[in-house]
Amino acid sequence: KTLEEGSLITGIVKNITEYGIFVDLGGIDGLLHITDMSWGRVNHPSEMFSLGDKLDVMVLKFDKEKERVSLGLKQITPDPWVDVDKKYPVDQRIKGKVVSITDYGIFVELEKGIEGLVHISEMSWSKHVKHPSKMVSIRDEVEAVILTLDKEKKRISLGMKQIEPNPWEEIEEKYPIGAEVVGTIRNLTDFGAFIELEDGVDGLIHISDLSWKKIKHPSEILKKKDEVKTVVLNIDKESCRISLGVKQLQPDPWDDIAKNYSIGMEVEGTIIKTTGFGAFAEFGDGLEGLIHITQLGSKHDSQPDKSFEIGYKIKAKIVKVDTGNKKIALSIKAYEENLDLEAIEKEQTQLEAFKEEENEQTTG
């Protein structure tokens, strides 16, 4: 039979390589490339052929001068992608076989020649799939839903988690704002703690909602895998985010601070930080107070970072309690001069006016 393009011809497998097989067509050899063997996935030609096999192939190309023949096998059968949109409409449930596992997902064979990708993010409602191989193995049968289909590019996106109900659908009914919920600490970061409330539902306790006291890292009060009682602060259903709080379960100590620490009261403290505009002292039960540069007293010059060492003990008077911003101002000057309430308040008014003026100059 002549080697015309499109004609069928019988040959015998003569040689097998990684990229294809050479077929003896009777005096001339033809190459059947791996990509022309099957509409499906072929990892190595030896999966399909052995030396000496007899087979019918189609002539795809014949270069008379170079005596090169390109052969095709899959071209004898119809392309399964032709009516793929009718066979696999979007939202349809399918069953398929896992044929490949990668870092980013798994490939599932729906039929010979048609594969779909389940991206790792579509494998489970729970965000904790570290690698697809933790969930499935090669040759497993899996159930999935068709998410998208691109006939031109021969791409199908599949979802496995869509087989299960989405835990975020009824999240507001299940975790209403203000509700107390218990979860397991899954991860600690610099900015907070992630709490697993149920499979697929995590909440975040921001570091500022962990304690009424200042903390530098969540690990100071929380430990991974521990259970923790929290309160639901906010729900963002679209972004699948829940904000949780721990400190909200305790009364705000600032309610008592305002009562217990009044203006004019004498306190003893320790310098914990110095800045260009003053120094911070710790006093009472872990409270922090700012001693403004104008309130450092007679013994200290106007450079706090030079006149104080960390750990230096001071005596001062409370000159301001700002519950709204949770700030306390102290004054060594008021202690030294034994200023009374009236004098302190007068000086504070002047200081505020001075600060405002300063701000206007720098911003204006």
Overview of this protein structure:
With 364 residues, the protein is mostly beta strands. It is built from 6 helices and 20 strands. The chain has helices at residues 84-87, 171-174, 253-260, 304-307, 332-336, 341-363, and strands spanning 8-16, 20-24, 29-33, 54-63, 68-72, 93-102, 105-111, 114-119, 141-150, 155-159, 180-189, 192-198, 201-206, 227-236, 241-245, 266-275, 278-283, 287-292, 313-322, 327-331. The protein has a 5-stranded mixed barrel. It has a 5-stranded mixed β-barrel with strand order 6-7-8-10-9. β12 and β13 form a beta hairpin. It is elongated, with a radius of gyration of 37 Å. The mean pLDDT is 88.
Which features characterize this protein?
5-stranded mixed barrel; elongated; 364 residues; 40% strand
Any chance you could write out the topology, listing elements then pairs?
Blueprint: E1 8-16, E2 20-24, E3 29-33, E4 54-63, E5 68-72, H1 84-87, E6 93-102, E7 105-111, E8 114-119, E9 141-150, E10 155-159, H2 171-174, E11 180-189, E12 192-198, E13 201-206, E14 227-236, E15 241-245, H3 253-260, E16 266-275, E17 278-283, E18 287-292, H4 304-307, E19 313-322, E20 327-331, H5 332-336, H6 341-363
Parallel strand pairs: 3-5, 8-10, 13-15, 18-20
Antiparallel strand pairs: 1-2, 1-4, 2-3, 4-5, 6-7, 6-9, 7-8, 9-10, 11-12, 11-14, 12-13, 14-15, 16-17, 16-19, 17-18, 19-20
Fraction of residues in β-strands: 35-45%
| Order of neighbouring strands in the sheet with most strands | 1-2-3-5-4
Tally of alpha and pi helices: 6
Bin the helical content. Answer: 10-25%
The first-to-last residue Cα distance is 94 Å
> What's the assembly state of these chains?
single chain
Number of strands: 20
